[in-house]
Amino acid sequence: MAIEFNQQIIETDGQGYLLDHTQWSEELAPILAQTDDLTLTESHWEVIRFVREFYLTYNTSPAIRALTKAMKAEFGEEKASSRYLYRLFPEGPAKQATKYAGLPKPARCI
Amino acid sequence: MTNTIAILNTRAPFSHTNAKEALDVALITGTYEIPTSLYFSGDGVWQLINNQKPSELAVKDFLKTFAALEFYDIEEIYVDKPSLEQRGLAANFHIDNVTVLDELSFANSLKQHSIILSF
Amino acid sequence: MTTLHLIRESSSQKDFSTYISLVSTNDSIVLLDDGCYNANSHWLTKLNFKNLYVIERHASARAIPLGDNAKSITSDTLVDLICQHNNSITWN
Amino acid sequence: MKNIALLVTTPPNSHLTKTAYQFALDVLASEHHLIGVFFYQQGVINGGKYISFPSDEVNVQHLWQELNKDHQLSLHLCSTAAEKFGLFPAELVNPETELAEGFSLSGLGELAALINKADKLVQL
């Protein structure tokens, strides 16, 4: 599959994850979210930027528990609860936020 | 009784996939809140040495993931001192919180765990 | 605390030096698969280890003569040994 | 009685895998309980649907399948490893249909669950 964006063809896998994370830009995130009927708010953006930064630093997408632990340090207890994150990303914060952040699909294992 | 798991790494990072596969196990047991400790001896100590550039080999830089271990509650990371010495290596690692142990302390610490997996 | 050490390869295939230092007097060693080739090898006899087991069929299949230093066991004894020790290490 | 779990990392054509199988059989015949086998690394190839052996060689996959059938022993394949070794197309919605009968697809989380339940985890 592919998305046409800014006269560029961006390849994705069957579930909508970018095949090349370097092709991502912030303008692409709302388009990726739209395919799941999700409108991104500033709260979503906090998580998306955080997940992307996590990936670029550690070369892995965080599983939910690591995500909440890492977010706690940056945003405090309230925003780092998995309940809060699931409210934002009902299909699973680790899965969905990584998709809109242009990152590879987390391993099936996790 | 609660199990604690020790993952013993004995191979250098790139020629085998063992290093990465051991790390994957650690990230999962950490995620599942099983107390997880990492041990490095023999050629396994090379996994922690500073200034490696896996991307020059077209290998995904999974070594960067070691720095995220704290988010998986993995804070016990031990290195066998004689293994460093035999290879002429200084305790110069790409992550913090690594404890270098002499031969006997390394063995005693490792063998406290109810489950030991070696890779 | 006692550990069961499982050796499955000949020492010419694997560098055991890192594992040997983990063996303490009360531990046990089991030779299985190609690990049986170590039965009479210098490094092992030098350890002069009293709790040394060999899976009999694995050794006889390989025409490995067993001396008094090793106890021959059948494969099901491995289950008992696993349960009698606190943990096990596979010399990978 | 102890709960024992088994971690298998060698492919079906390796003699080491037969030793792992023999251990599983011995646990099942003992007073202890074998709570599951987790296939990791090259071990996942044991669950490949299309492996075949010459008729005069022992087919270890059949042996695993017998244990699954006769003892309801669960045979977990690490899904990431299974994908890497090409056991099924990554996009498949029901990849389990592409595995040999008796094997199931699991995350490493299943290994963690076995570790939580087991008194002993043996790596063979």
TrEMBL record, chain A:
The keyword Signal does not apply. One of its GO terms (biological process) is tRNA wobble position uridine thiolation. It comes from the Bacteria. Its EC number is 2.8.1.-. One of its GO terms (molecular function) is sulfur carrier activity. GO terms for cellular component: cytoplasm. Its main location: cytoplasm. It is an enzyme of class 2 (transferase). Belongs to the dsrC/tusE family. This is Sulfurtransferase. It comes from Thalassotalea marina. The gene is tusE.
Automatic annotation (TrEMBL), chain B:
It comes from the Bacteria. It holds the Pfam family DsrE. InterPro entries: DsrEFH-like, Sulphur_relay_DsrE/F-like, Sulphur_relay_TusC/DsrF. PANTHER family: PROTEIN TUSC. Belongs to the DsrF/TusC family. This is Sulfurtransferase complex subunit TusC.
From TrEMBL, chain C:
GO terms for biological process: tRNA wobble position uridine thiolation. One of its GO terms (cellular component) is cytoplasm. This is Sulfurtransferase complex subunit TusB. It comes from Thalassotalea marina. The lineage of its organism: Bacteria, Pseudomonadati, Pseudomonadota, Gammaproteobacteria, Alteromonadales.
UniProtKB/TrEMBL annotation, chain D:
The keyword Thylakoid does not apply. Keywords: Cytoplasm, Transferase. Coiled coil: none annotated. It is found in: Cytoplasm. Its main location: cytoplasm. One of its GO terms (biological process) is tRNA wobble position uridine thiolation. GO terms for molecular function: sulfur carrier activity; sulfurtransferase activity. One of its GO terms (cellular component) is sulfurtransferase complex. It comes from the Bacteria. PANTHER family: PROTEIN YCHN, SULFURTRANSFERASE TUSD. Belongs to the DsrE/TusD family. This is Sulfurtransferase TusD. It comes from Thalassotalea marina. The gene is tusD.
